[in-house]
Structures are given as structure tokens and as C-alpha cells.
Amino acid sequence: MLNLCAVHKSRGVGSQRYSLVIPALALRAGEQVAIVGPSGCGKSTLLDLLALVLAPDQVGQFEFHQQDIGGLWRADQQSALAALRSRHLGYVLQTGGLLGFLDVRGNIALPRQLLGLEDDGSVARLAEQLGISDQMGKPPAALSVGQRQRVSCARALAHAPQLVLADEPTASLDPLNAERVMQALLDRAREQRAACVIATHDEPLARASGLPVRRISCRRDADGGVTATLGEAC
Amino acid sequence: MRIALVASLAWQDYRRDAWLSACSVLALAAVIAPLLVLFGLKFGLVSSLTERLETDPATREIIPLGGGRFSSALIEQLGQRSDVSFAIPRTRQIAATAQVGARVLEMLPTAAGDPLLDGLPIPKGLDQIVLSHTAAERLAARPGDLLEARFARQVAGRVEEQRTRVQVLAVLPLEAFPRDGLFADLALLEAAEDYRDGGAVPALGWPGDEMSAVEQRVYPAFRLYARSLADVEPLRVYFAGQNLLVSTQANTIAQVQSLSRNLSIVFWIIAGLALAGAFAAMLAGALAAVARKRRELSVLRLLGFSTAALLLFVMVQALYSAGIAAVLSAGLYGLAETGLNRLFVQVPGEHASHLLARHYGVALVAVLGVSAVAAACGGWRVARIQASEGIRDV
Ligand SMILES: Nc1ncnc2c1ncn2[C@@H]1O[C@H](COP(=O)(O)OP(=O)(O)OP(=O)(O)O)[C@@H](O)[C@H]1O
Ligand SMILES: [Mg+2]
To answer: Could you tell me the pTM of the whole model?
Structure first.
């Protein structure tokens, strides 16, 4: 379903250069993986690439849902990419990424509305599972950071996407809630047979949740720039 | 992407930014409302002036100068021209007066279609008349009264006089004819003309010489009214071509028309400059909105909004501002109209400031159109918004 091979992305130049190398990454439907690494190593960059919002520089192979993503980026097919994102992707942003002009319910329901899907009760069910049922009428600004992240998780799952990406979904939560939210996220993804990529710096939590862990390792190059490489599962 | 959903999302964002939205509405209303007032004044004053000209038949009257020789057939022909609303022969000066009571009244021929007698009964035959306002006042006569009209002549140094009873059918309003006058069927004037020429008038039983019936009557002048203001000048030119000097109000009409044209030009220059300014303001507003909403717009992009949908999002918000500003401006104009119409002294039925429903319609369409175009130009930058830029800081 998702298949990457020799994908490169560089940002900045000279000693400010940062390069991410993905030698290989393949995910089948329902497969789940955790990406770990220290802050600044490129977890968010990797997820942005997978979320089809960041254009890769070099592509050996980048296939998602039988589509050649590298080709779409080269041809600047923004609307095709947007359509893929809208239908098949759920992305929990590190910073929440909620829309301030919609209340919690509106935010969670929006991906379904954009696809023209009826509300089948999944919005309320997700809110229940993620413990935000009593926050539904509030604007995001009136939520705690942890609550915002849970709303963001609910939004990423609402339209039953095939690929769920989550960037530090539990970073702002206490250990108990962190485990609960991580479990809810993984359970729902499993239910929907969605592939799941979770970036976290909390390796023990990832392992406790039974996820295979892949590490991003950084190395400083001769020119002062940094090259980060996605390692194999360990 | 469904338009209704985009419009509803845009509305919710617009409402949350209520303060900024109110600012853009006020900025627009600050341009539109004064323009409406300006146009209302222009339209009100000009249409008052032209209405005044149009409702006063005297403006459309064409008066032949100097004596002519016209047959009744020729005058009838004139009356049938499409640019003439009414034409009737006038008898000679000799038959231009009648003595009624102690007063000498000017006599004018009239017939159906006379614009001076608009809406009043038309006197027919030899025994019906319509009095002017001042004449009726002086004679203390009212519609229905019977009066005695006297006609005097000198025959071989002897003064003779005949009288006939006439009924007052109606009294003209003051503004229709300001002098002492009497309107009657042409037959009564012709009778007076014949009698003063020394002839007999068998219809009234007045004695005198037998008038030869063979000779066709010749009239020295006529009463003639153009159909509309615009017909006055062409008729003047026509009569000049016939070697007939006429007096018209063509100058006054031309003055009002050129005043109206010049006021229109002034208005459109001001409106054009103001609209260009409003366009620039809206363009800047749209650019600022795109910059301000960059994070939200990039999240919408992440969720799958196409460029067209993002552009629509920005344009719909500009249309909301334009619509609200248009309604607000119409309200402000309504207040100004009431004030201005009270401020300017005026004749009843006329307005210093006045707008028609279609003016509001045109203003609304223009404001919406200009806003949409300005927002589209300014909002074009949304095409360059990448989801990856904004989502890092929301
Ligand atoms: N727009 C950009 N231009 C240049 N460099 C960037 C840009 N965005 C990120 N970087 C660099 O890319 C590297 C990876 O950033 P990224 O946000 O992916 O890290 P991360 O692993 O998600 O870190 P964290 O755990 O703190 O979220 C960082 O060194 C950052 O400085
Ligand atoms: Mg990150």
C-alpha cells in the first residue's frame, strides 16, 4: 500500500543543510510502525513526506495506493495529491493543527464533510474513546494542549483513512493518558485496517504498545551539514 | 469540493474574526455610502429639474412669431405629426378678447388634447367655456355658473354689441395659465372674428353682412405643443426650414440637459476614482487575509482543499463583507436621504435626493462584482500556499 525506496529530502544549505534519507520503507494495510529519534532528527519531515505535503528531492520509488507519488510531485499535480490526502490520509500534527474557527465537533467532523460522508456516529464514538466527549462544543483555543492532541487524533481517524500518520500524539500527555490515547489510536487504526506510522521520542511507550520501532540516526557530514537516515526495524 | 460547505466554513471563520470583518465592512461602506448619497443627490436634483420642465406644458409650447397665413388643413396636418401632441388654429387679434362682466378676458381656442386643460372637461360649441384661475377669481365664478359674454364692434362709427350666455365648465389651476383667460371652442372665436369683421353670425342670431362661404378661412397663428422635451428643438428647426420664426424654450431645455449630462460626468469620475480606491483597498485586504490565515489555509490544504476551493474560501469572505457593506450603505443612504430631503426646500412630489430600486440593484451587483474580482486578484496567492509551510505552527 505504501512503498518507498531511496527517497531523499534536503533542507537548507552548507552547514545549515539537513538531509533525510529513506533507504526503504514499505507498509501493508493494517501494518503499524513507530519512528523514534532525538528531537530535530527529522521525524516530522518524514511524516510530511508520507503525508504528501512535502515534495521529495530524489525518488527511487514512492508508491501510495497504486499511485506514483514521485511522478505526481514532478508534474506538480497538486489537486491529485490533495484528493489522495483527503480520501486516504489522516495526519495528527505535532502541534495539533486544529482549525480555530470550528469547535471540537466541527474539527473532528470536517474530513467526513469534505468527502461528503454522512455522520454515522463515528465522531461521537471517537470522542468517547479519546476522552473528549465533554469538550465537543468548545473552540480549540479553550482546550489544553493534550486535549488538542486528542482532538487531532480523532480528526485523523474520523474518515477511516488507509494511512494514519501521528506526530508525537502523546507528547503532551501524562503517562496514563499517553498509554490510553496511544492504545485508542492503534485500536481504531487496526479496526479500520489502516496502516499506521507513529513518530515519538518515547521509545518505551512504543515498545509497550507492541509496535516495531525504526530509528532515525543522524550523522554530521564533512561540510557541517547533517544527514539523517531511517534505519531498519530493531 | 462542495461550494456550500466552503461557504459555510468561510462564514464560520468570518464570524470568528468578527472585529476584522467589521473593519472591512466599514471600510467598504465608507466608500459606498457617500457614493450613494452623491448619486442620489445628482439623480434627485436632475430628475426634479427635468420633471419640472416636463410637467409644465409651457416648456413644450412652440409660438409662431409674426403673422402667417395658415389653412385649417395645414394646422391639422401639423397636429398629426408624431412629434406634436396638440395643434389648433388661432383667430386674428380682433377676436382675441371677450368682455365678461366688468372684465376683458383673453380668448384662447381649445379642443380635446389641449395640454393646458389636462384632465379637465373640454368646452364644446358656442356656450361652454373654461376660465383661468385669476379670471374665475375676479368674476367670482365657479364651475357650473352661467355668465354673459359680450362682443362689441364699430360699424360706420356706431358701436354695436351682442351678448351670449356661456356656462363655466371648469376652472384651470393657477400654474396652468397665470393670466385672465377664457378657453372656448374655436367656433366661438370664429364667431367673434366674423362679428367684429362686420359679418353676421346666424348660429347666434347676430345680424351683419353675409359672409362668403366660398373663401377659406385663413388663420394668422396657432397654438402648438411638442410631444416631449426632446421634440422641441427638431420642431424649431423644422419651422425655421419653413421660413417661420418661432419662439421656444429650447434653450432652457438644452441648459437642463447639459447640466444633467455634466453632473453625470462629474459623478462618474468621482465614482470611478472611489471604486478604484475601494478595489485597491479590497485587494490589499485580500492579500492581508491570505497572509493572516496562512496557517488555517494550509491546514485546509492538508485536509484536501484544492486551490480553487481555497480561492473560493477567500472570495466568499470578501463577498460577505461586500454584501453586508452594501446593506449597511443602503441604510446609511436612507438616513441621509431623509435628512437631505428635509434640508432642501422643495415642491411636493420632488426630491433633492432620490434613488430607484434599480439603482440599489446596480450598486449591489457592482459592489459584489468589484469585491469578488479584488479578492480573486489578492487571493491568487493562496495557490502558492503549501500545506507543509503552515502546519508546523498551528
Ligand atoms: N523549513 C525548513 N528549512 C530548513 N530546515 C528545516 C526546515 N524545517 C525543519 N528543518 C530542519 O530539519 C530538521 C528536522 O526537523 P523535524 O521537524 O523533522 O525534526 P523532528 O524530528 O520532528 O524534531 P522534534 O522531535 O523536535 O519534533 C531539523 O534539524 C530542522 O532544523
Ligand atoms: Mg517533529
So the answer is: 0.75
